[in-house]
């Protein structure tokens, strides 16, 4: 067996530096609010100090407003939740006029998630957000992985050649760095990451929700109106960690934002050790709007306890099982 990693003297939490860099950006902490879980930010201002976030990712923006799917469109599961919101949003024009000014003044990194229903509308959305944002947006997070996108959404998120073409077109249409949110439904997650990297993506977000369903046995009906929805929360964390680790090992120079079931500071540190440099918190916010501030302080305290002085020292330090040691399931 390999020797355990060397022990490091504990540090006071205040001595831990949580600053991190992602695709040329410097964030005050690695923790961001995930798309679809934090609306446009204003709605959470009464519940938490938004200026203590590393950043926030808006809900998905499309060229025109969308009203979303019929209700019920969300339900709890044993280890998370299912949602089929249908990407309801105000559209590009209303976002730029009514939502972005508030975000500009927060002093945290602003990422705008965006999507289209087909190739031209993806490119249109990237172009219009880039042209109208001024200095208010740090990253455009391109969603090619939502299970609720029809008209090619699955193909965009699972076929590397298609993802490459779409990413390249959006990168060329935008002056803002584009991070691609990849689908866990892809057969080759490393191949997908490689494809969008070669197309000019500044990084990737891993992962989006996993398609699932829940049944009301007494009514003999699905619990959400669209039957299937996206599963998020602690149930998907092991899958997300595996995919982050695979991409980080194969493409060590590609920035990764880890997503999936982050409920505590220890969860966040797992993603950093797997190779992510930033981490998004999503489902936890539905039950605890101030979860990111709590998780940030838990991360700081845990890093101090383990003698990890800064985020750079935590990223990608996972010890692999040596090849000569056989894996024995518990």
Descriptive overview:
With 330 residues, the chain is of the alpha/beta class. It is globular, with a radius of gyration of 19 Å. The protein has helices spanning 92-104, 119-132, 153-158, 160-173, 189-198, 237-250, 265-274, 284-287, 291-305; strands at residues 20-22, 25-27, 31-33, 55-57, 74-77, 80-83, 109-114, 139-143, 178-181, 203-206, 210-213, 215-216, 221-222, 228-232, 256-259, 278-281. It is built from nine helices and 16 strands. The protein starts with 19 loop residues before the first strand and ends in a 25-residue tail after the last helix. The longest helix is centred in the last third of the chain and has 15 residues, at 291-305. Helix 2 links the parallel strand 7 (109-114) and strand 8. 48% of the residues are buried. Strands 3-4-7-8-9-10-15-16 form an eight-stranded parallel barrel, surrounded by six helices. Strands 5-6-14-11 form a four-stranded antiparallel beta sheet, with no helix packed on it. The model has no long low-confidence stretch (mean pLDDT 92). 30% of the residues lie in helices and 18% in strands. Helix 2 (119-132) runs parallel beside helix 4 (160-173), helix 4 (160-173) packs parallel to helix 5 (189-198) and helix 6 packs parallel to helix 7.
């Amino acid at each position: 067996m390999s020797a355990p990693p060397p022990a490091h003297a504990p540090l006071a939490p205040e001595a831990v530096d949580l600053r991190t860099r992602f695709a040329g950006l410097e964030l005050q902490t690695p923790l961001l609010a995930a798309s679809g879980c934090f609306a446009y930010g204003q709605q959470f201002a009464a519940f938490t100090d938004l200026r203590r976030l590393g950043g926030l990712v808006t809900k998905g923006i499309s060229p025109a407003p969308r009203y979303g799917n019929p209700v019920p469109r969300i339900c709890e599961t044993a280890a998370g939740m299912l949602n089929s919101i249908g990407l309801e949003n105000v559209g590009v024009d209303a976002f730029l006029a009514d939502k972005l000014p508030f975000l500009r003044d927060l002093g945290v990194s602003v990422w705008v998630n965006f999507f289209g229903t087909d190739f031209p509308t993806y490119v249109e959305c990237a172009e219009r957000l880039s042209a109208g944002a001024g200095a208010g947006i740090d990253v455009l997070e391109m969603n090619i992985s939502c299970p609720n996108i029809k008209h090619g959404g699955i193909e965009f998120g699972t076929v590397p050649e298609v993802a490459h073409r779409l990413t390249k077109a959006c990168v060329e249409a935008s002056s803002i760095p584009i991070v691609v949110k990849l689908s866990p439904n892809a057969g080759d997650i490393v191949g997908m990451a490689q494809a969008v990297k070669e197309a000019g993506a500044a990084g990737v977000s891993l992962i989006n929700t996993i398609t699932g369903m829940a049944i009301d046995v007494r009514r003999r009906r699905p619990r959400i109106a669209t039957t299937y929805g996206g599963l998020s929360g602690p149930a998907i964390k092991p899958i997300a960690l595996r995919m982050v680790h695979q991409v980080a090992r194969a493409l060590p120079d590609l920035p990764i934002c880890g997503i999936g079931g982050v409920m505590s500071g220890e969860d966040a540190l797992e993603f950093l050790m797997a190779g992510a440099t930033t981490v998004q918190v999503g489902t936890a916010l539905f039950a605890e709007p101030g979860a990111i501030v709590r998780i940030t302080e838990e991360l700081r305290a845990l890093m101090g306890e383990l003698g990890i002085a800064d985020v750079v020292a935590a990223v990608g330090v996972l010890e692999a099982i040596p090849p000569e040691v056989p894996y024995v399931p518990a």
